[in-house]
Design brief:
CATH topology: Glutaredoxin
Distance between the termini: 26 Å
Oligomer: single chain
Radius of gyration: 14 Å
Strand order of the largest sheet: 2-1-5-4-3-8-9
Structural class: alpha+beta
Helix content: 25-40%
Largest sheet: 7 strands, mixed
Number of domains: 1
Length: about 160
């Protein structure tokens, strides 16, 4: 498990615009990692639309939001376009980062293998994990109040 107070495991993934994004390149910024099972599913759409609609909260404190799923670059690009997301979506198609963060269902519905769990991590400017939530039930939403509290946005 990834624990609060430990260095966040580094990774490099491609975003929906086919650019490489590395966690280490974001040092000096707060980072919110949001793992989600599938683009276009109802709960994932609701989660990421919440972020879209409240993005100014994160932008105002120079925090970078990264949505991560095992969807392809092309699926994420269409999802981002359709929903008007103004934050980065990363493809963990090979499931390496989801495994690295212990945020993966090895066995999923309908015999699918290797689907990202719904999980949230807040990483500070030094690359240290400040908040962790890995949900057992993919139908649950992240605790956005706890995420905001870990960022110092609410007390």
């Amino acid at each position: 498990m990834i624990a609060n107070g430990q260095p966040a495991p580094d990774f490099t993934l491609f975003d929906s615009a086919k650019n490489q994004v590395s966690l280490h390149s974001l040092k000096g910024k707060k980072v919110i990692l949001l793992f989600f099972p599938f683009a276009f599913s109802s709960t994932c759409t609701k989660e990421l639309c919440y972020v879209r609609d409240n993005l100014s909260l994160f932008n105002n404190i120079d925090a970078e939001v990264l949505g991560i799923s095992v969807d392809s670059l092309y699926t994420l690009a269409k999802f981002k376009e359709d929903q008007g997301f103004q934050f980065t979506l990363l493809s963990d198609f090979n499931k390496e980062v989801s495994r690295l963060y212990n945020a993966i269902y090895e066995d999923w519905n309908y015999n699918m293998k290797g689907v990202s769990k719904r999980a949230s991590f807040v990483i500070d400017q030094k690359g240290i994990v400040q908040y962790t939530q890995v949900l057992a039930n993919a139908g649950d939403l992240p605790d956005f109040e706890a995420i905001q509290a870990s960022l110092g946005l609410i007390s």
